[in-house]
Amino acid sequence: METDKGRESMDPLPYLLPIREAYEWKRQRAEGVLYLVILLPIREAYEWKQCVGLIHELTLQFF
Prior knowledge:
The protein is mostly helical.
């Protein structure tokens, strides 16, 4: 199992989670187990994914 310090050293942006990890965090929290403290709620992770997709689309249009 990863630790907070291990995650911080591996991820360039430790405060942003991919959707799958956000889902796993929500499930763990529902079960009363929380391993990582700095995680995004599902809605924010989804909005972050939408923003990244929009930035990618705009980049393709202009370059």
